[in-house]
Structure prediction request, 475 residues.
Amino acid sequence: MLYPALSDPQRKDRALMAHLMRRAGFGAIRDELESRCVLGYRATVEELLHPEQAAPLEEDVLRRYQIDQNSLMLIESCQAYWLHRIINTKAPLEEKMALFWHGLFATAYGKLNHAKAVVNQTNLFRRYGLGSFRTLLIELSRDPAMIFWLDNKDNHRGAPNENFGRELLELFTMGIGSYTEDDVKACARAFTGWTINNAEYMTIRASRDSVWPHGRLDWQFVYRSADHDDTPKTFLGHTGRFNGEDVIDLICAQPATAWFVASKLYQFFVADTPDEDAIQILADEFQRTDGDLRSVMRTLFLADFFAADDVRLGKVKSPTELVGGTARLAGSHQFPEWSIVNLAMDVNFMGQEILNPPTVEGWHTGPEWIDTGNLVERINSAALEMGDTTQPGVRSIIDRLQTFGTVLSPAVFVDACLDAMGQFETSDATRDQLVRYASKLGDLHFDRQDSLVCTEQRVGEMLQMIVATREYQLA
Prediction:
């Protein structure tokens, strides 16, 4: 519910905007929420849906000051690189879509032993993640990390490897029950010849290209027509001399694919519990637009089911959302710093090793993000960021509090902190506990110069209490 103090006729609009920015991004600071409310909800959605119009990240600065994030050879460096992008991006939906596709098309460093290859795959998601689903699938099928991850490099004419074909149908597009074993076999044969320049090939070129012929080069997609099975195949009830693109065309035309993609988007962006009517709306838009993902996401964000009261604060933030969103709120890590690796490790310790999902199924999300150990990690990490009163975002919150007066009662102190953090929706029980905590030291004074350090410390402690609340752990 909206907390009662500090009455503001625009509070409901701000609460809805905060909900949008948590789901379509990683949260937003108070000033951004205010400016977006002036822009309007629909206009904000449209802006988010066009990340190509946003100012790009200053990669040259990042690479100049962080050599390990320039080379991207180590998994920790790559995780820190993505977290830096999440914290500083001006196109939050682009990063959120990349995280969504990374969880769905789960590809892990653990098997590849080539961290940059997985980073390159996330760049693919940034380029195509809001475009045509067909194009995304074709690019994914040509992606070296995916080819290695699901063994399509071992898929040969006369000796097909079914791993990629099976997961393409089961986990990426249609779901179990929408195809047969014969379809899997035909799919695998269609993708024969889609491979990468492997170690043997690179060894031949080593004298010209690299002193590391077996390792840290960027893998490249290559199509070997001599290794492609060009014989007739029957797939999803159609017969022809299909190649990989033909198979993807047939997959994208299936109603099962529209439903599958819609259900995954609903689960990630709206709610963990399926709503068949809402999913059908998204599936219909998918089919109407031939898989235009931008149109599907526009429908999702503008739908009544997305803005419903029972949906807000109804999903547990993933570790990446929690850590990245808190750093954005605190204003930390805006400049490339080595210490962001520690923040990336926090995400790992909470159970989400980005770029290294545990299986091809990705992560088990929702309430499974929370257990006794992970909850302690989540609270400690967020509290460490928000308790540092030297961080620019925390300083901004302290400055905003002073606009509510020079002396704040415990209740106003709490509500002003919630307002300044953009946490517009809390339960009565949560707010009462926060006010009870604030009341232990009485009113908050900004009118006593000799005690301002103590005042700011109290603000930092209150912010730490807020990030430990149930509501802050939810999106």
